[in-house]
Amino acid sequence: MKKVIKNGTIVTATDTYQADVLIENGKISCIGQNLAVGGAEVIDAKGRYIFPGGIDPHTHLEMPFGGTVSKDDFETGTIAAAFGGTTTVIDFCLTNKGEPLKNAIQTWHAKSKDKAVIDYGFHLMIGEMNEDVLEELPVVMDEEGITSFKVFMAYKNVFQADDGTLFRTLVAAKELGGLVMVHAENGDVIEYLINEALEKGNTDPIYHALTRPPEVEGEATGRAAQLTGLANSQLYVVHVSCAEAVEKITEARRKGYDVWGETCPQYLVLDQTYLEKPDFEGAKYVWSPPLREKWHQDVLWNALKNGDLQTLGSDQCSFDFNGQKDLGKGDFTKIPNGGPIIEDRVSILFSEGVKKGRITLNQFVDIMSTRNAKLFGLYPQKGTIAVGTDADLVVFDPNVERTISANTHHMAADYNPFEGIQVTGEAVTVLSRGEFVIRDKQFVGTLGQGQYLKRAKYQSKPTETGKSQELTI
Ligand code: URP
Ligand code: ZN
Ligand code: ZN
Ligand code: ZN
Questions:
Q1: Which residue, 74, 80, 133, 333, could crosslink 115 as a Cys pair with Cβ 3.0–4.6 Å?
Q2: Which atom of ligand 1 is nearest to the CA of 159?
Q3: Ligand 2 center to residue 31 CA distance, Å?
Q4: Complex ipTM, two decimals?
Q5: Residues of the chain under the 70 pLDDT cut
Q6: Nearest ligand 1 atom, CA 317
Q7: pLDDT given for residue 472 in this prediction
Q8: What is the pLDDT of residue 461?
Q9: What is the whole-number distance in angstroms between the Cα of residue 378 and the centre of ligand 2?
Q10: Is residue 91 within 6 Å of ligand 1 at its C-beta?
Q11: Domains in the chain, please, with CATH?
């Protein structure tokens, strides 16, 4: 059935204007003033913004990690994402050394099919680079539309790859048109610092942060950026948490390297003192990289504002406090890393960013949606509001005030790291390809309505000066 969103204010990465949006066959078919739309179902957006659906470029749904499996799966995770105003997620498909890539991809299809309520794609982890992998990569790109690869520089003896693997992945990505993503922390140095802490009997959650200082993130970020320049390739640094890493990304971009950086809501709002909460509660705030001293938050916000960082991912990887996080009682290295963020990513950016004057409304749309679509081969099908694009739309009330809480969130995890934080703004109605997923704050979607997205190859590239182009696109 035809739908029309009336009386709202459309916001894209570049424009803010009042118009009606007509939706037919899952696409936006017309945008204009006072559209005559006999027979269309009317969605009244008076006093509300209409945003392109959020694109979360970084999730780990139902992922085996740290001796357990992340709590939110493609069902609860995508429902919660939709409640928060996100209509696309790109999840990390983990691979196993020595096994064909296609096995891992099949495993991820099996996890997501018949569950996801919004559209989704996969990034592929590269744990080793050899002839078999090199042979399979072009097939994966063409047949599966997986055009971004993730290399972990940390998690020694689990996911960590060596510099040779990173470099060969960068070279291959350059040739094939892929984007290389890195978890940038120096895993070898972390291992040393962890052993030193444990030998001294330092086992509390705070030592998670103290054994992963900003220098190990800055060093790995700089190394990955240099190798990218050497390979003349392209790099996306996930979950940037600190000034040291921002500095390396900024420096690389100034040199004209094709390097991009993502941060996450937790690093913008929470700080290292949360790891010191009593009764093991600090475990709720264990991420890698860890939460930092508060002053880093200003650096991250400024970087988003200036374009030195370009995107916001949730790094959704949730674990219950009771029964999962507590695996690390008495040994911080056994605390599963990650948290439930997928639902609050857009709200936190809007409330802490736009409402507090740190970024503009159009930058907000770019950071939470448009830029992600462009970088990950989904633009313009996703990530904007224009005739012919998917009707992935969020009707957003910019004035409602609410308090984030596990009592009201839709994620499966038993706590919310933003518990008690006041935010302004909330998604009211969310459409995925023209179908209601959330209607007047109620879930009305169907499991499996989300479609798998085959993504295009990597295209965008900054100009020589890197940053200036970001301001003009
Ligand atoms: O602590 C985190 N970030 N958990 C998820 C896995 C990863 O490293 O992104
Ligand atoms: Zn028209
Ligand atoms: Zn990571
Ligand atoms: Zn992650």
A1: 74
A2: 8
A3: 5
A4: 0.94
A5: 460-473
A6: 5
A7: 32
A8: 58
A9: 23
A10: no
A11: 52-383+454-472 (3.20.20.140)
